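> example.struct
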């Protein structure tokens, strides 16, 4: 049986970002010409993805959140999953992973 590898999240090449202030920023999808405001946690997660061109798994992002914020895995995991789902739905991130040979 093939072992599944975790999905890795990458920023879309059509997505750009700028800081508004220390606790917020704006992501823009160039193709859709739509922008999205990110709060402090969203900015943190965006920068995590930006800093890792090989992508980050949801688990890696969760561990980073727990290490840098006063939050439990039980509280952070559903919020992180929702955030990644929203970014994916808006085509601001893409994923790769799954079974070997598939992405």
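> example.seq
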């Amino acid at each position: 049986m093939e072992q599944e590898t975790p999905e890795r999240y990458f920023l879309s090449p059509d997505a750009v970002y700028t800081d508004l202030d220390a606790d917020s920023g704006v992501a823009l999808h160039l193709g859709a010409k739509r922008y999205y405001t990110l709060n402090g946690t969203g900015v943190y997660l965006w920068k995590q993805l930006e800093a890792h061109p090989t992508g980050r798994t949801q688990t890696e992002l969760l561990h980073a959140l727990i290490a840098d914020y006063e939050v439990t895995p039980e509280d952070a995991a559903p919020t992180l999953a929702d955030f990644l789902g929203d970014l994916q739905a808006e085509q601001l991130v893409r994923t790769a992973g799954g079974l070997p040979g598939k992405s």
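> remarks
Strands lie at 5-11, 15-21, 24-29, 34-38, 56-57, 93-98.
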